[in-house]
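Exercise 7. Predict the structure of Carboxyl-terminal processing protease from Variovorax ginsengisoli.
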Amino acid sequence: MGQKLKITGWVAAGAVAGVLTTVSLQTVARGSLAPLPLEELQQLAAVFGMVKSDYVEPVDEKKLISDAISGMVAGLDPHSQYFDKKSFKEFREGTTGRFVGVGIEISQEDGLIKVVSPIEGSPAFRAGLKPNDLITRIDDTAVRGLSLNDAVKRMRGESGTKVLLTIFRKDENRTFPVTITREEIRTQSVRGKIMEPGYAWIRLSQFQERTVDDFVKKVDEIYKQDPNVKGLVLDLRNDPGGLLDAAVAISAAFLPENATVVSTDGQLAESKAVYKAAPEFYQRRSGTDPLKSLPAALKTVPLVVLVNEGSASASEIVAGALQDHKRATIMGSQTFGKGSVQTVRPLGPDTGLKITTARYYTPSGTSIQAKGIVPNVLIDESAEGSPYAALRMREADLEKHLASGQGPEAKDPEREKARDEARKRLEEEAKKPAADRKVPEFGSDKDFPLTQALNRLKGAPVMVSKTQVIVDNKEEKKEN
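Solution. The predicted structure, encoded as tokens:
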């Protein structure tokens, strides 16, 4: 990060808590503590003693303390979390893009575990799991009542072992079992290709340790195939976020040197920072500037960034920076709205605490928290529209979510109306054969938003959204 920051751990810029959690760098721990509330701590000790002595059967002291810490942190917001030994190890593994599991991003919905998206090429992806699938059982354990952390533990395991997931698929109104063999997940976070002469597509599915290097390799590969690229689509759809320094680097690849990418603000002095498009803000401790081999044309090539409701946190940083500097046209759907920074502090050799320490802001000073990035051009998922977009979970829908800090939140009656209409359409759609409801793969010739992005680059007509409703409160709409 910046030279003024003393690095001692990680700062997360990921989206929802998931089977693959991603992180970045951490600012220093707070130097002083506020006075402790002794009376309340005495009550806590008294409860601990009563449970230990009076409960119907013996309880494990370490588990009691661990559960107390977990409950305290979970009450803050959806992204703060206590890591025990196993989950802390898995958390750190996630930064490399390699871990053993089934390969899905998850969140919670109505007490169940919701599939945000299967990781491309993973066992879950090959088994046919889809976004919005609900996991109701993991082996013989009912999911309702489990925390996300507990669900992750049960789906992780040794490579080659099997886990039985019971899936409820809303749009087909059916429940079915899926047996998945765990394996090491090696996520490929960068894909890309020449779509047609002069026009290229690069997709980032996450921001990981290898993402910047893989991005540079892919750009070099594309420019070797076609040195006269006239337009580029940067696809951040369903990108849940990841490493903050990787997001700064990808932004810097397209922006002028020293342009502001993102700023953060929180209670700690170290949380008040500005990150710029310069090597000292994204270069790792060792090595050279990973962007120095990029073709100079990348700074000026016409650029469209594709986003949707699944684009969160680090991907919102990139979209917000490129939008504010007018470097790219943002197209797609309003993003998830996860605009907070999580600091991960070790509590010992094998446990840790992930706690929200700051909000982040686009270069214009706009908070994305619980709001998201509104595209310059709203594009539907298909020529028929995005009939179910209103049903998708956003940061503002999560229980105990952090407010934007820029005005009060208000329920949008138009969105509630759109949700009711979407539910009715979903009931009708569920009657159709499953093959008719299959969503085209990103990057295919049937990818409608990508086609519209290419049309924009070529100056051809673009089919704008027929169905989307912008989620924002009235006070903030006036500011924009």
